[in-house]
Write a structure and sequence with these properties.
The chain is α/β, with parallel strands linked by helices and 327 residues long. Helices cover 45% and strands 16% of the residues. It has a domain of 189 residues. The strands form two sheets. Strands 1-9-8-7-6-5-4 form a seven-stranded parallel β-sheet. A two-stranded antiparallel sheet has the order 2-3.
Length: 327
Amino acid sequence: MTTATGIGSHPGDDNAAYAEAVRVVLGELPGPEGLPYVPEVPGRGPDATMTGRAVALATDLAFDLQPAGWRLTDAEGMDQRRARSRLAQDLDQVEEQTQGYQGAFKTQVCGPWTLAATVERPRGDRALADRGARRDLAQALAEGVRRHVADLRRRLPGVERWVVQVDEPALAAVIAGSVPTASGFHRHRAVEPPEASATLGWVLDAIREAGAEPWVHSCAAGAPLELLRGAGAVGLAVDLDRVDAAGHDQLAVALEAGERVVLGVVPTQGEADEASVVQRVERWLDLVGLEPSDGLVVSPACGLAGTDAATARRALEIARATSRRLG
């Protein structure tokens, strides 16, 4: 049976918006035809962004918040404590609204390479420039994810299958050597694919060891899908508009291997309708020579933080209706 899910982020700028996002996810993506998830509402501030949540999860590392963003530091500060408190409050809300829930559930975490391309070193510039710093970030994130999954299992005891989606929007740029330095005048040196795969693999292995399925999401053009599968991802989430010919082949191979493919096909801007989205997925299946299968998941093209509440709800509604039609 084809299912539906969302990428993770939702619109809003306060805690009331977060509670509403949880209600929308649970209401529009009921199991088994939907895969509900722990939503993110980054509009509430730096501690609620993808990076802020990773800062809250990372173990044995300290961060503070600077005008340019999050920075590694020697001692945990108020900003990191606030990020941890925000995450705990969000999980309290999810726990409250999922009483009695049984089925599958998904959560999202920032990937190690996107984190290294975002967080600064204590002496300036991105952690990406320092091999030791990016290793420390990945290992701290891996351990943090283990603890996060354990916490989620305690909070949602009825969940029979956990999925952890690792968000890596910057990975393609990291490998291509196109991530700008802090000054903007230069680019960070490209990371070789074997190192990129091994470092990502630490986090994916931690997810698997925690008893969850490791998926990787990238809505960037040129996402290295073969590398993601080689690193241990058993689910690939993409924006279909940004997939090249080689990417289509990799998605088809993943489906044929019994893995999950999340097709981001529901527009997040402008008008969308079920019929056109269904036709789009059917055309893609014809292109790769496959039929709808249990491994196929329909989602919005990317996160919904840039939309309004009505559009976000409608996008999930269309994703679920599309999956039902395909099924």
